[in-house]
Every structure is written in C-alpha cells, then in structure tokens.
Amino acid sequence: MPIKLPFRPRGQSFPPDLWTKCPGCGEMLYNKQLEKSLRVCDKCGHHFRLRVDARLAQLLDHDTFREQDAGLESIDPLGFVDQKPYPERLATARTSTGIRDAAIWGTGAMGGHRVAICVMDFAFMGGSMGSVVGEKVTRAAEMALAERLPLIVVSASGGARMQEGTLALMQLAKTVAALGRLADAGVPYLSVMTDPTTGGVFASYAALGDVNLAEPGALIAFAGARVAAGTIAETLPEGFQRAEFLFLHG
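and the corresponding structure tokens:
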C-alpha cells in the first residue's frame, strides 16, 4: 500500500525582481547577469524584447542621444471607441511606459560617428504606427537628408494603428517617400528589425534599408501565419516568418 505524505512537495519559486524565465528554453536567468548579456539568454540565445531606453543605451555612445520632437502626441480624429475610447488607451499607454508614443527619434553617436536614429517600443500599444510614429520616422529621414547623416531605424511593431484609420495607413506612403529621397541622395539607411516587425511597418520603411538587419528569431511578416496559411490553403513550413527563414529564402 503506497504511503501518502501529509504534505505536498514545495515547488521552486523565484522572486520576479531577481530572476526571469527565458521563453525560449525555460531557464531561470539571474536578472543582473541577463542585463550584462544585453538581455540575451546565455543558454539558448533568445533575444528578449527591449524598451526604447535600453535599446538606445546599447546602440549609441554614452550620453550622446539628443531626442527630437519629444512633445508630439497622437490625437483622436475619428472619436474611435472599441472596448474603451482611444484617448483613454493613449493615456494608459503613456502612464505604463513613460513615453508619449511608440517611437522616439533624435541624433546620437555610434563609435564616434553622428547618426540620426528612430527606435520603436512594442510596449506602447504593440508598437503600432499612427500619425506620430510615421511623422517621427519621416522627420528622422528628413534630418538625415539635410545633414547627410546615416539613418538607423529600429522597428518593433504589430502594424498600423487601427484607432487612427486612414491617417495611420497614409504613414506607409509618407515614410516610403521620405526614404526614397534619402536613397536618391545616396545617404545610407540601416533598418533593424526586432521581434515583432509586422503589418504596415514591415510593408513600408522596415524592409527598405540599404542594409537590413534582424535579431535572431524575430517575427517578420506582413500578415499573420494563420491568415497566410488560410490564403494559400497550405501548411506553412517550420520557422515560417522568422528572421532565419527570411534570410534563407529572401
């Protein structure tokens, strides 16, 4: 007859302020060590998503970033309401992230070389591109053109912001036109695609770099995998829409 223990074995618990579980391999990572490794898992190489301030700190020389157009804010031209009004969503996102919209741009130095840079933050409404994000990317490209600075754009987005309707969609054309002028002038543009880079952002400026870079494992696509599979009525191959698959297949 099996013996029943009067207690249950205690499971492992890790203080969330000290440890982070890697979604790639399940390893518990010590937060201080994770920061030292630039938020890349040293067990499996999984790249964690970065907030905009961390991304800028990693890319630019210390204390060289100078933000531009920090006061730009989205408005509510459509009076859009889903589960809650759009202005309420914006207010919640600003409070939780500490930034005004899903992108920040400015100038800085990289290895001593001055650059124009725009970085997106997925934590702000899924990095969705509305009028402010499109305007910041465009202004970054215009400054890069005027001062002949290399332009770097780091994308992290679920696509165009539905709450702004056509105003969000027109940012695709606006940003592409600005990058076209930059290309005509021979000013280099480097696009960095992080997880995820999808929808209208991928369909516009994210895929147009003179050099296109991507983080390992990043989701990069226009339509979601289920939509794509349903459209072509086929089973998608393993790793479809991940950075490595796109690198191999173009």
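(Above: one complete record from the training split.) The mean pLDDT is 93.
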